[in-house]
Design goal:
Number of helices: 9
Structural class: alpha+beta
Mean pLDDT: 78
CATH architecture of the largest domain: 2-Layer Sandwich
CATH class of the largest domain: Alpha Beta
Shape: globular
Strand content: 15-25%
Length: 446
Amino acid sequence: MSEMTFRLPDVGEGLTEAEIVQWRVAPGDRVEVNDVLVEIETAKSLVELPSPFAGTVGELLAPEGETVIVGTAIITIAGGGEAPASVVGQSEHGEQPAASEAAGAVLVGYGTGEAATSRRKRPAEHTETVKASVGVIAKPPVRKLARDLGVTLSDVTPTGPAGDVTRDDVVRHAEQASVFRNIATPAAPAEREQTIPVTAEPAISVAQPGDDRREETIPVRGVRKATSSAMVRSAYSAPHVSVWTDVDATRTMELVKRLKASPDFADIKVSPLLIVARAVIWASRRTPMVNAAWVDKEDGSAEIRVRNYVNLGIAAATPRGLLVPNIKDAQDLNIRGLARALEKLTVTAREGKTTPADQQGGTITLTNIGVFGMDAGTPIINPGESGIVAMGTIRQKPWVVDGEVRPRFVTTVSGSFDHRVIDGDGMSRFIADVASVLEEPALLLD
């Protein structure tokens, strides 16, 4: 009986390593082509790897929690057949490798997923949530989203036509919980110092009751490792400059209200973020340098690459950590298309299905710190870009209108920019343009 070896593939573009998060199979299991073998995390994404072979699982060569290099053998499969040509890697001459060559094949892509079988075990911490959700009307995808976000469905106020909990209800509840989670002051720990966990994985050493250990060690890997590397690279390579301005966003809130009531947007989530996104795209066309990139060349020289398209990145806080997927060619979308793209991007990120390709090629980023109750900030530029815009919370404040103080919806638009690429007048003009759209959305008709 022949034994085939499956090696860790490059599921993105040039990725070098991945962490084994969870094996879906065990030695002795029978698998078919495209059955899910393992869940890995790399480049801020969780990816399910399907099997390119059919047969019996032999040995799991990499334990869960271990980071392995692309091309490393991670599992053996005995007997059975191999995957079709579209799944198993081809030889350098474009020919299908023989069975002996296929034994060491590296899977390219994610497979069809149609025949994939999942052996995921529900984490123990979800048990109480599931019990508390019995009797609540909600579709299966909504229940899954609630589990992923740690939301108890019985705590969510339903707004569905049949009294059902919708996807928006779950997301809204999760966002509110994240904003108010620190209102209650926790009891001070006995230890004088501790390291706050920064990943979903358990600590290597966790102090138990009665232990005299005063510190804990948390491994930096997965999402946190990728995020920290990118932020340090950006902070120490691009000279950041930040600017901000307050703006009367009352007419933006009125427009959002009208869009929500429109039949054309009945099946799409509409929020002020949609108008800000449109404003960023519009303002980028008027100040193209905010959408440019500084490129260091191998000969020691440098150039500025101006992109005449907008791949709009949206910073998303997810259960797995910070992700920045982007909407490709956002400048070609009308407002309804942009709203649908934003909704899809957000849901995909929260469900942990964002792929490496979704996060590559961004040209400018928008982060919504308003959902956390923050007014303004000085965000760090995403690597490969020259600008990032932060949208603050929108709240009613006294505002002078025609010489009179009136209650208006006010927000702060801030942004950080690469001063090698953009001068002060350019970044100020750009932020002023974004603010002017929030003040008068009719400018988008231009």
